[in-house]
Amino acid sequence: MFRPTPMPTLRLPRAAVASGLPRNIRPQIASSCAEPPAGDGWLHEPKHGGHRLIVITDGDGGLKLVSRNGIDRTSLFRAAFGELAGAGRPMILDGEIAVPDSNGVTHIDALNDAIGRRRPDGLAYFVFDLLYLDGHDLRRCSIEDRKAVLGRVIDDLDCERIIYLDHVVGRGAELFEQMRVLGGEGIVSKRLGRAYRGGESRDWLKTKVFETAPFVIVGFQELGEGRLEALHVAEERDGRFYPAGQVRFGFAGRGLWGDLDQRRTGPATSGIFPIAPVLPAEIKFFGRFKGGSIRDGVLLTIGASPPARAAVAGAWSCDSDDAVAAFGASRVIRRR
After folding, report:
1. What's the half-sphere exposure (Cβ side, CA atoms, 13 Å) at 305?
2. How many domains are contained in the chain?
3. Residue 95 belongs to what domain range?
4. Quick one: 132 and 67 in the same domain?
5. Per the domain annotation, does 313 fall within a domain?
6. Residues 226 and 181 both lie in one domain
7. Cβ atoms within 10 Å of 90's Cβ, excluding its own
8. Whole-number Å distance between alpha carbons of 23 and 107
9. Is residue 188 situated within a structural domain?
10. pLDDT of 166 over the 50 cut
11. What local confidence, expressed as pLDDT, does residue 306 receive?
12. What is the CB-side half-sphere exposure of residue 154 using CA atoms within 13 A?
């Protein structure tokens, strides 16, 4: 027989509305921007490398986990939410499922590996919003009021795998710079005083850390004759070429396929045509996967060809949200 754990009653914001538990939630989506918004009218959170997840508990042990696109992920991630489902509190949370290491650092490929290997033991949920609690819809409340209640709820729950994602108010440019230095993915900025609204919104802005660096194009994939699907690149370090992943943006309209077609050296392997001589290129990218491959690469410029060298495995960088602590704020990752 299900016996919920008694939970203390919390004082809710005035804008909270008495309501039955919603069964479907349309997530609010952050719009992209080139730099963090300035001023004290925004709060800023580190951006984790994981999957967006809406969590719905009915207070009677029932649990539903829904992806950003409305796909039911309950069976995939249930293991991380056992304590939450048993808390006896109807609620709806918004956050990111990820796999942190011992220092709280998250890697998107670590999550993908956990999913592929069916290893749920490392999963953690970084929760940044509270949409419903104890018979009240909080979506009309301001973001700062929702997060204030959320912090108390997470403290009361004391669930090891449910982690409150803290924030700073103002100082977005400083937090962003800290994320860049740490190798993080970026930040999400949320306008103070605003309600939660489903769909893409300018009240939530994401600023992703990016780098530009020289690479060489060593192969390509095609959608058909004259049409490119992706470029495969490597980077030179210590006189050798290191594989660096693929680029899928920035080559449209450049007429690049003809040059690559003349350089192909043989049949495709796993759909990739090798080329020689290789082509140097400047690439913009948004961080790296653990294996060293660049993320979301964009072709900027193309130059003359250097000589080819042997390719070996590369290094890696990671995501972290320890940056908030650097500003003297309360810790982003609250461990017990």
Report:
1. 13
2. 2
3. 17-206
4. yes
5. no
6. no
7. 18
8. 30
9. yes
10. yes
11. 46
12. 27
The CATH number assigned to the domain holding 101 equals 3.30.470.30
**Token digits for 243?**
């594989």
Phi and psi angles of residue 315, each rounded to the nearest 5 degrees, phi first: -90, -175
Looking at residue 296, its amino acid is D
**138 CB burial (10 A radius; 0-12, 13-18, 19+):** buried
Farthest-apart Cα atoms in the chain, separation: 72
What is the distance between the alpha carbons of residues 254 and 66, in angstroms, rounded to a whole number?
Answer: 40
152 and 264 inside one domain:
no
The percentage of residues in the chain with a pLDDT greater than 90, rounded to a whole number, is 34
Distance CA 314, CA 191 (A): 39
Does the reported pTM lie above 0.85?
Answer: no
Average pLDDT over residues 296-315: 57
Q: What letter represents residue 9's amino acid?
A: T
Same domain, yes or no, for 139 and 181?
Answer: yes
